[in-house]
Write a structure and sequence with these properties.
Keywords: Membrane, Transmembrane, Transmembrane helix, Transport. The protein is mostly helical. It has one domain. Helix content is about 75%, strand content about 0%. The chain has helices at about 1-10, 20-25, 30-75, 80-95. It is rod-shaped.
């Protein structure tokens, strides 16, 4: 993929002045060179986007694992004190909407 792009850029005849990528695409007489060059560029950009998406997924997974590990001790195994639980039950039993 990248080799094709590199070969396409170097196979093009260049004048004394170096042509920039955009100028080369616009001024070439060979339409197949434009097709291959632009397709290869799109493929390289697509790979970069995919790599960044996978990297972000790994980062989010790591953050989620950290949050789970740090908060699990606070969420599991703790209960309300007996007097608070009894108070809640008493209030619920005395509420006419719940009966």
């Amino acid at each position: 993929m990248g080799g094709d792009c590199n070969a396409d850029l170097h196979s093009k005849s260049r004048s004394e002045d170096e042509l920039y990528y955009e100028e080369g695409v616009r001024t070439t007489a060979d339409p197949s060179l434009n097709v291959v060059l632009l397709e290869d560029s799109a493929a390289v950009i697509g790979v970069a986007i995919a790599l960044s998406a996978v990297s972000l997924s790994c980062l989010l997974g790591t953050v989620a694992s950290f949050i789970i590990r740090t908060n699990a001790a606070h969420l599991v195994g703790r209960s309300l004190p007996k007097r608070i639980t009894d108070d809640i039950v008493c209030r619920l039993e005395n509420d006419p909407m719940i009966r």
